[in-house]
Structure formats: structure tokens, C-alpha cells
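Record type: ASSEMBLY
Status: queued
Input:
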Amino acid sequence: MAAPVDSGYWFPALALGVSFLKCLFINAYHSTDFEVHRNWLAITHSLPVSRWYHENTSEWTLDYPPLFAWFEFGLSHVAQHFDRNMLQVENLNYASPSTVLFQRLSVIFTDVVFIYAARECCRCVQEQKGPRDVLSRPSFVLAVLLLWNFGLLIVDHIHFQYNGFLFGVLLLSVAKHLQSQHLQGALLFAVLLNLKHIYLYVAPAYGIYLLRSYCFSQDNKDGSIRWASFSPLRLLALGSIVVSVCALSFGPFVAMGQLPQVLSRLFPFKRGLCHAYWAPNIWALYNILDKGLAVLGVRLKLLDEAGLPRASMTGGLVQEFQHSVLPSVSPSVTLVCTLLSILPAVASIWLRPRGARGFLRCLLLCALGSFMFGWHVHEKAILIAILPLSILAVESREDAGIFLVLTTTGHYSLFPLLFTPAEFPIKVSLMLMFTVFSFTALRKLHSGQGSLLRPLEVIYLLGLVVVAIACEVVFPLSPWQQKLPFLPLLATSVYCSAGICYSFLRLYVSLLRRDDKPKQL
Amino acid sequence: MQTWSLVSICVLLGVVVRWGVSLNSYSGAGKPPMFGDYEAQRHWQEVTSNLPLQEWYFNTTDNDLNYWGLDYPPLTAYHSWICAYVAKIINPDWVELHKSRGYESLTHKLFMRTTVLVADLLIYIPAVVFYCLYLTDGSSKKKVSTLLCFLLYPGLILIDYGHFQYNGVSLGFALWGVLALGLGWDVSGSMAFSLALNYKQMELYHALPFFCYLLGKCIKAGPMGRGLFLLVRIAATVLATFALCWLPFLSDPSQALQVVRRIFPVARGLFEDKVANTWCSLNTLIKIRSIMSGDSQLYLSLACTLLAVLPSCFRLLTKPTFWHFKLALVNSSLAFFLFSYQVHEKSILLAALPVCLLLNDLPLIAIWFLQASTFSMLPLFLKDGLLVPYVVTSLAFLFFSLYLLSALDHCSEDELRMGAYNKLLVFLPKLDLACIVRWKFYVSVAVMAVLSIVSVALVPPPHLPDLFPVLVSTTAFLHFFGTFVYFNVVQFSEPPSRKSQKKSN
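Status: finished
Output:
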């Protein structure tokens, strides 16, 4: 008998299955982001456009670009059929059952964009030759890695955000580039930037790639740029797409003279270097190094304890973190570090373009670089790297190894997002499910080419299990729970940042090594 | 991919779905003075942890039997006692005598839900995994598909994790019994089943097939010699298990008698509420309860039940194979559900378990029945505020089981074991039975969907307040009765030959 999954319907089945699963989390815990989005629904529904970026009844002011505000405006017209009271700006923290149902369903239904994008990505991957079991076909594995992504499930459907929809647009744009439909890809990315400006992080990759590989239609034989092949028409087409999307989005606000107000909402630099829970990046390591040096200094009597900034650590949860030994970091420093970190990647695709896959690699490095060095990075931003990396992971063995390290660490670093005991079994089971699948499926996919992980990486990932047990099970029962409540968060972010730094470096090495290859030929 | 990873993914998915359902409301949440089954279970913890064992089943000043008095066999009581022990460590308020009545809090809900999950992980889920891996035919992918469908059966999940009960324990023990018998370990199988019986007396629905299968096997092995030896060993095991479970109550005959009286309350009437069995459905035409005395109702139901069980048990006694055993389990539990005394709507789970065992052999009929059984409990789910999980899990189960087991592609007459019908219906022109079954399935799913929507969306006319529950239970009754007839016919037709089984794999 032919196994049932061998029929072509596995993609709808996977998509439908995960959608049903999402519906089960309707009554789960939701974070303050739920109220943020409810407030935006109310603002866009009940106020004129001119008030959108001025309204401040709630502390959760509108701080996404205008297209997202229009998206909320559209949603609010459906919302009024569920419960009109959620659309009043004064109803702070309003969460009636029908409000919850509507908001949850809106996330589930807008995920259709993500499902479509995943379908397009699956069409782009190179299938290996020969008849294969559907479970070990690259497109099937990729579909599961994208649709059932653990991080996306808990961030969107429990914590509450609209990332699925936004990542859908990003992946769709990546897929269009993989299919060499560059103008569509550029249009989608311009739309995405006007939906959520966090994607500015990956804009350099887009800009350079389109300029280099689309506006210049030919290369010299050695791969270097042929200036004569520059096509002004293509540049004009790209430019007009980007400008018209931005004009559509920001135009009305420019006309009303509100651009400075909008921008001040979009880029608030008043926040601290790190989020309340440190995202696992360089600054987490920097902070812990600073703390370590301070403690060491006091022990060795090199530093005067009274002279140190007070409560720099007992408030591990305080946003403003003052360094005691190392110099403090300002936003401009982080900007310079970020630019420096992505420079080699961007330069590499300018000097030696390697098609859409080289672009994808560069996009990943931009995402990871800004995650590593950015100002006030959220732990959720790691998904910008994890999701596109899934595409590379099903195609090459080396990327699969990087993917496993990055995904497992990145996903574990999302654990503190769900701190309520009721959601504990869900996050553990979902994480295990995704991890078991990604390990076994990728190993099967790249079987016969040696093991995916190096011994040291295996030890590191096993250490993650130890950290998880220590933080989630042992620590809450120990006496330190009262004295050092921030310790698990600290340990998690420091341990995870090591893994993410490592993946960042390995990804860089893989990009630069590919640079050398043409020379050897 | 290796089987172990697929199996662990299925189990984890089962856990996620269970826990997702458990985030919803439970029976009697915030409804004093009686609350619901959740409070009943909590109250048993309170009683067992605070009172001496001799008072558990007696009406005393400290133990008001009218307020959710203990009416399950001793193993349930012991389970409550263990849970109460843990509860006392976490928060003694949860089980404080008298004062904790109607205690509700988020943490307590979390604790109660966890106890269900722990019991399931220890007993029910491993049994399902082993059953699907060792006792179903086909490729490993087919086994895993069956496992996933088995684990995602919505009825059990919604009752245990939504409404709140511990059916997973008794059904799990019964399943361990089936598993052991399937592997040929008759003695351990009978022990597991005795444990199931001592957890919930409703497991009696499964008792006759167990008895007949083992007896038939002993007879087949030769009534003297090996067969007798086996019989003695099984009997000794059962007696020992029972004695062990009842040990604290055996010192005083009045104790044991009181427990029995609590477990079998004959005074409660032929049926309560709206249940999809014969008596309740007949009630729309004939008011049996008003024309017959209580005793004659009892005898009538007893006679009908025995009559309905007899054929399949007799067949099993003469042909004690595992295939017939599974069918007899279905037939016996359905017969009990349809005809016996004091049936609850939740008892359909006892019939659903053996039908789950047939998911791999007769996918379409099994899925159809399981869907109908979930649907039959709709009024209960609506009362408990479980509409969303009901809709989600039912749709997911229906879609995934049809897809994974490719049920609609595999329903030729041969695969549906409908050969016997053509012989029975000789006087009719030859019909394409497979096609008829498929259409009946579509119509029935549509009817269930429409009735579900109507029950939720419409207000019943004032002179018929129970219109929708009655419609639901009658529809479900028709399904159950049809399934009962079908499985009896299958049991009396020829068992599947090896050859046709090979072909279908």
C-alpha cells in the first residue's frame, strides 16, 4: 500500500494541523502585547489619521510604521462585529472573552500569508534526485521547519504578536528573489519595511544585492563587476517601487507635517542597551564581564565598593544597566559595531555575487549581526535569522549543522517569554517536538555525509539541557529563589549568547570560504 | 526518519493537545452549591486525606455522602489519597476538611490538571504506544499514523482534560490488559484488567469479553491439563489482585458491603439527563419510567443487556482469537451502553476505547463511530464551556484520521468486511454497499455539524427547552445502534484472511 502521506496533500495537512493547534492556545496566557495591539485597534478605529501618532492615553502608543496602522485599521472593522467595547481608547486592559477570541483568530488567520510564503519557499528548494520517502524530502522538512517553528508558535500564539504575517511577507520576498522575480521581491520588502521597521536590519543585504545583481545584468569572466552592463531602467524601476510604497505609507503624515512626530515614535532611543531580559548577544557577555570584573575588583580590593554604581545587578531586571568597570555603551557605538559586523558580508556579495543563495546568506548575517550588536534588542528578533536559515539548512550539510546550534539555542533563549507555570508543559513539549524533528529530519536528509555536529557542539547543546533543568526545575525549589531571582535569566542569556555568537562566526566563515572557492577552480 | 523519533513527536503532540484543552474551563466552574466533577474529585481528596479509611464510604458527621460521596471502587480512593498527599505538601487549604468545599483557584486548577496528565503519562499513553507498535499491522509509518489518531481521540481528551475526570487511568489499565492478552501474557493481562475494574466499576462493560476470551483459550488448550492449569493461575491472579485492592475493607463484612452498595446505586433510575442509549431514546415515544416500577425497569434492562451481549460473547468463546476479542470488546461495551441501567453519556468512552483498537483494521467505521461518540457528549461540553476545544479537536481528528489512515480510499466492500450483508440481503438487488456507506458517512457528518451549529446558535422554542439535546442524543443513538449491528455482523462473518490483510497493508 502506498503510504498516505505520499500523496501530494501533505502541505495543506501540515498547515491545517498547525492552525488547529494554534486554536487550542486561545485561552492561554498572553503578554502585554495583547493590550498593545488592542489599543492600536482602538486608536486606528476611533481616531482620525492625524491623531494616530499623537494619541497617548495608553502607555502603549502606536510605534509601528503607518502600513501596520492601516492593517490594524482593517482588522478593527472585523473586530466591531465581535465586541465594540474593545475599540474604545479609554478601555485600558480590556480583555473580554470575545476580544480574546477575535485577537487570537486575527493572528491565526493572518498567518495565511506565512503559510503561502512557506509554500513558495518549498517550491524553491532543490529536490534530490531519485524517489524518496516523503518524510525525508527537502521540501517536506522545510515546510515543517517553517510552519511548525517553535519560536513563532509561542511568540505569536501564546505571547501574542503578528510575526507570522510579517515573516510571511519577508519569506515571500526571499522566495521571489530565489525565483528571480526581483521586482516583486523588492515591492514586498518595501511593504514589509513599512509594516515593521525592525526589518531595516536586513535592508543592507537587499540594497546591495539588488543594486549589484539586478541593476548590473552581467559580470566579467572572473566574477567582478562589469560597469558597462549597468541598466538605468532597472534602477529606475526599483527606485520608483520603493519610493511609491514609502510615499503611500508616510505621504499623508508628511503632508500633515507630522513626520518628526512619527519618527520619534518609531525610534525611541530612551530605552536601555539591553531589554529587561537580556537578549543573548554580545552585550549580555559584555555586561557579565563587567560584573565579573567588578566583583573581582572588590575582592582584590582594587575597587572601592562604595564608588560603584549602586544596585547595578540586584536590579538585573532594571532596564538601565550601568557598567562599573568597562566603559558604558552608547547607541552610536552599537550602531558602529553593527555596521562593522555586517560590512564584510555586504562587501562579499558586492564583490562576488553568488546568486540568490548568496544574498540569503548575507541577509542572515545582517540579521544576526544586528542581533549581536544592536541597541535594545529583543530576544524575539532571533527569529529573523532562524526562519530564513531553514531554507539553507535543508540544502547543505554545513548549514544544517549551524542551523541546529542556532535554532536550539535561539529557541531555548525564548523560554523566559513564557514564565507562567500553566504554559510550562506546552513550551517544553513543543520545543522538544521541534528539536527532535529538526535533528532527526536533517540528519536523515544529509545522511551519508558524516555527522552534522562537531563533538564540542554536541557538548554545548547537552549543556543547554543542564541549564534548562537547573533554571526551570531546580532553581525555583532552591533557597536562592528569594535572594537572586534574576539568576536563571542571567544564566540563560549568557549561556545562549555563547551559542549564538558561535553560530554567527560559523556562518561568516561559511560565507567567506565560499568566496575562496572560485579562485581554487 | 526513525520510528522512535516519530513516536516521540506523536506523544509530545498528544501532550500539547491535552494541555491545550486543559487551559479551558472545567465542569461546574464557579457554580455553587454543587459545582461539578472537578469538585467531586477534589472532595474525594479531602475525604480520603482527612478521614480514617473506615469512614470513606459511610455517611458520618464528617462525611456527607449526599455531597459528592465516594462512589467508585477502592483504587480510585487510593488515587485520591495519593493526590491529596501531594496537595497537602503544596497547599493544605486545598484539602482541608469542610473548609475547602468548592475551593477554586488558578493554582489549584493547575495542580488538578497536572494530576490528570501525570496519570495519563504513566498509564494510558504508554499503553497506546505499545499497542500501536506491537499489535497493529503495516509499515512503521502506518503504525505511527494509527498511534497519532489513537492519541488524538477527542472524546477522551475533552472529558479528562476539559470536563475533568480520570478515565485515562481505568481505560489505560484495560488497555494494558488488552495489550498483555494480545502478546499472550494472559496472567498479567488479567491482573491489569482487575486493576481497571477496581478503579471504575464501569469497566464491567469490558469484563465479559475478557472472561470469555480467557475461558475460551483455556478450553481450547484442553479442559484438563494445560488449560485447567492456566485457568487456575488466572483465577488466582484475579482473586489476589482483588483481595489486595480491597484488603483494608475486608476486615469487616459491613465495610465491604457498604462499598458495594455505594458502587452500584440501583435506586437512581433507569437513566438520567439525556443519554444516547435505547431507554432515553425510547422515552421520546414511550414514557417507560412512568409505566414500569423501578424493579421491573432494572430487570428489563438486565435482560436486554444480557441478550445483546450474548451472541458476541458466545462467538468469542468458540473462537478465542485476538480479532474476535477486539470485536467482542466493542460489542459488549456498546450493548451495555445501549441497554444497561443508569448509563451516563460519558460511558460511551468505554465503547470508544475498543473502537480505537480497530482504527487500523476498519478505519472508516472506527473514525465515524469515534466522531459520533464525541458528538454525543456535545450538550455536556456546552455546559462546561468547552465549545472551542470541541470544535477544534473534532475537526482536527476527523481530518487527520481520514487523511493519515486514508480511510476514504480504503472502503471497498472487502475492506469494510461487508461480504455478509450481501448474503443477508439476498432479496434486494445487488447494491454497491461501499458507495452507500461512504455517502451515509458524508450525510452523517453533515448532520452532526448542522446539529452542533444549531445547538450553539439557536434558542430552542419555549415549549421544547430540551429540543436540541434530545435531537443530539437521538442522532447519536442511531449511530451507536448502527455500529452495534455492524460490528456484530462483522464478528459473525469470516475473519479477515491473511491474504486480504497482506493486500491491504
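Annotation: Chain A touches chain B at residues 1, 3-5, 7, 9, 13, 16-17, 20-21, 23-28, 101, 135-136, 421-422, 425-426, 429-430, 432-433, 436-437, 439-441, 444 (CB under 8 Å).
Annotation: Residues 41 and 72 of chain A are 5 Å apart (CA to CA).
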